[in-house]
Amino acid sequence: MKFRPKILPPFSRRGLLGAGAATLIAPAAFAQSALGGGGDDSAAPAAAPSGGSNNGPAINVSGAQNAPIPIAISPFSDSTGADSSVGDQITGVLSDDLSHSGLFRTIDPSSFVPNSVVNNTPVWANWNILGAQALVTGDVTDQGGGQLRVEFRLWNVASQSQLQGTAYTTTAANWRRIGHIIGDVVYQQMIGEKGYFDSRVAYISEAGEVTSPIRRLAVMDYDGQNSQFLTDGSSMAISPQYNPTRQQLAYVSFQDNNPRVYLFDLQSGAESLIGSYGDMTIGPRFSPDGNSLLMSVSRNGGAAIVRANLGGGGVTELTDSASINVTPCYSPDGSQIVFNSDRDGNQQLFVMNADGSGVKRISYGSGQYAEPCWSPRGDLIAYTFWGSDVGGFTIGVMAPDGSGERILSQGFLVEAASFCPNGRVIMFYRQTPTADGHDSRLVTIGIDGFNERLVETDTYASDPSWGPLLS
Amino acid sequence: MRRAALFSFGFHLAIVLAAIIALPPLKLDSSADDSVSVELVGPGAPQEANAPGKVPAPANTPNVNNANLAVKQPKPQPIEAPPPPPPPPPPSPDHTPSKVPPAPAPPPPPPVQTPSTAPAPPPPPPQPPQKTTSTMVQPKVPLPPAKQPPAPSQSPTHQQNITKNPAPLSQSVLNTLLKLQALQKQVQPPTAHYNPDQGGAPNGGGSNQSTANSRLSGADRDAIGNHVRPCWTVDAGAPGIDTFSVNLMVTTDATGTVREAVVAPQDQDKLGDPIFNAYAQRAIEAVMNYQCATLPLPSYMLGQTQTFLFNFTPGS
User: Fold this and answer.
1) How are the residues of chain A apportioned to helix, strand and coil, as percentages rounded to the nearest 5?
2) With contact defined as beta carbons under 8 Å apart, do B58 and A229 qualify?
């Protein structure tokens, strides 16, 4: 059989251009060509600006800036349109929530044009001129009997349309929470994810002398307000953890000078000891469904990670105690656990399956890793790292496979990272030396490493654990 | 005479009774309550959160049996159904909120300076034979210009004099018709303006997805993209944003200013993802931003509306 090469037509730049143009952007001309109405020569002009009915390449816009959304929050008036002190307080909370998130830029109310909302309808020109992309309006009605009715509307200024309108009725003392709830609604509408403003944080309040501090279990709003102590400080409390599905805390109490993990029910105030598995139990972490608890049991100089079923089931030992295995944390789907172990010589991070199999080391830095915390989004693991290279402690994040490691913040002592419910913000505590000892403050930072902010608390604070959304 | 009066009275009485019986009762115009239609019933338990800064002393700290904890505070329930937008306020001379596009109607575009590369205008349709009437007869010899009535200030169809009531006291049917005709006559100039540049559908018609992109050179597209870029912002922390890309159909007016931007049909199905939806909204905001909305279109594309396909990506 004789090979017969296929003869290709000679390469023609002109023909290639013509065919390409006809194929890509000149279907009409191409059809005409196919019908014998023209060849390459007739197809080529179709790409020229001749007003044909053809589509061309899209206009590409790239290189976006990471910028907050400009939003205007019109002060909430009362039902008669007059100023309302409660309305001002609610809008103050709302403004703080949005601006502190780093994703919104609240426009200064002093720049608002007077009477820019008439009969609950914005005067669009007055908001356009401020460059607002979104607008929040609302009013507050005192319904008597200590009840407030708060109505708000979220507007898209460009499209002059209402995105959301909701009214809430609650007790007057709940005005701060109403501000948080409205903030979450605005956040979800504009960002596309659930917010985190209507949430609480468990932490350890620190007071007293440096040599004999009083450490109490406490809980507060995410912004540091409405703080409440849950223990009296007679026994030192550390390492609180918020149950992700219910109002329940786990923490380590040094009652009888023996550190053990306790459960604290925030609804009833009831406290209960979780088993008695060894010399001491530390580092509790709830499972994503809130029905079980991981913790470390000290034994024979080492520590084993165990899982305790809160429904009354048994205890499953996930690691041995030949080395120190501590601070476990579930992945959001509950299939994996990241923990901290010195089994390779110094403290590093490891990931294993939820049943304890398939242990894999994920950190390899020349220092010590501790207190890993898996993001609710599942894409990051936050941790504490210290080593000679960085000259102190750092809060960092990495992907679950150990890649993409980066430092978010560092200092004399930074520890105990905890993600907010949507995984966009991390709270940790920062300890700074002072003349008479040190202070300890809670700090939030975005997972992009920007927008680090101090959380105002009434006392020194440490060991934050961010709870779930309340609503 | 009396019989006729009685007959007339009876006839009218019958008509009135028939109308009462047969016609449906008048319904009052029930103006819809546009305020929040659904109320939220607040929680039963009172709020017990402490005021900021009032941290109780350790001695008063609630013990483990104390049920009065802040976390028991009632949870307000949001209303599921959002209230409809309120009715627009009565028009006032200062502002007129309405649903018209934010910008005022653009002035009639200036005469287009047709460059050599501009597309040739479509040939005018054949004119039907015009009927010559006495008012349209052109004088064969130049005549002095006739005294024109005051020129209409805004439109040639502007009516100067309001039709008077021909016979206010007349009860004839013809007079009633004349009154009706007078009422229906246009007494205000039309608000629409004739746009001589809008001859035919842009781009020769076709489907609603056709764009004028093919009339742009690569340099034109780059210039437009660079013009919009400063207004293009994203939420860099959004999950998966590095993989996002959204196409917009952007419509400009005769001056090249963006008047409408919508997500292109090929990306409509992605809008169910709220994060992508937020990303797309930011793209729309960018191209509608007053600082970037006037696109640097080539001059031959001005003078008529155009639709372009934009693609927004976060990376450089």
Assistant:
1) 15, 45, 40
2) yes
For residues A374 and A417, state if they share a domain.
yes
Which one of A157, A191, A225 terminates a domain?
A191
Q: What is the CATH number of the domain that holds A112?
A: 3.40.50.10070
Q: Which residues does B19 contact at the CB level (< 8 Å), separation at least 6?
A: none
pLDDT in tens, A393-430: 999 999 999 999 999 999 999 999 999 999 999 999 99
- How distant is the Cα of B270 from the closest Cα of chain A, in angstroms? 13
Q: Which of residues 257-316 of A touch B (CB under 8 A)?
A: 264, 266-271
pTM for this model (two decimals):
0.68
How many CB atoms sit inside 10 A of residue A300's CB?
11
Last residue of a domain, one of A161, A191, A221: A191
* Cα separations in angstroms, A212 against A215, A257, A431, B199: 9, 14, 17, 87
Q: Does A255 touch chain B (CB under 8 A)?
A: no
Are residues A155 and A66 located together in one domain of the fold? yes
Structural domains counted in chain A: 2
CATH number at residue A443: 2.120.10.30
For the CA atoms of A452, A425, A132, B286, what is the dihedral angle to 10 degrees? 110
* Tens digits of residue pLDDT in A27-64: 333 333 333 333 333 333 233 333 334 578 999 999 99
ipTM of predicted complex: 0.77
Cβ under 8 Å to B: A residues 373-402: 377, 379
